[in-house]
Design a protein that fits this description.
The protein has 237 residues and is of the alpha/beta class. Helices cover 46% and strands 17% of the residues. The relative contact order is 0.15. Bound molecules: pyridoxine-5'-phosphate.
Length: 237
Amino acid sequence: MIRLGVNVDHVATIRQARGGREPDPVTAAHEAELGGADQITVHLREDRRHIQDRDLRLLRQTVQTPLNLELAVSADVIAIALDVRPDQVTLVPERREEVTTEGGLDVVGGLAAVRAATARFAAAGVAVSLFIDPEPAQVEAARESGATHVELHTGQFALARGAGDVAHEVERLRRAGARAHELGLHLALGHGLDYRNVVLVRDLPHVAEMNIGHSIVSRAVYVGLREAVREMKRLLV
Ligand code: PXP
């Protein structure tokens, strides 16, 4: 069965819209777990546009499932992550002007920095995943960096329209996933997955985990977060 990581950043985005106390992503994480989430994922962005340091520290104390922290390869957030010690970190690229994480981390181009960050987390007992485009060269560089996990960026797949383009993107994910498996890397998928498109990638070989946020939080507006997570879990069995 594929493990479902629920990304609760979007709950914090609603809170930040008014700068108040609700809705609280810490409460949301608890609700997600009650709905069957296998992991809680948050992204501490350098601009703090949604998740705040306070959220991360409280989540570390309250989450019952593994806590997966997404962060850029950047000294200040790395220092916070080493202090908080989530169960896993996922290194992602970050640009301030982007609406969301737009592409994968360029591990080929930035191997030295990724390797150095990975070594620091490994020494602290924190598993390292790299969020990369589904390209064999990026998978191979991920292996060279010392990371033990990769999360393939499904954004292009999610944007594909028409049977041919969708099949092409699924094939890219299959190939990159097969390479990751050959190299002994744990395989996850994430970004832009929803209740309709997830069924097209759930049967890809070796996928152990998916991290899904926006579609679950969107559905939660209508059915509640616990139920929205339950419905996604049902699609992953
Ligand atoms: N995985 C990673 C690495 C991400 O950066 C994000 C977005 O924060 C997600 C998964 C979840 O994407 P979405 O909100 O589109 O489901």
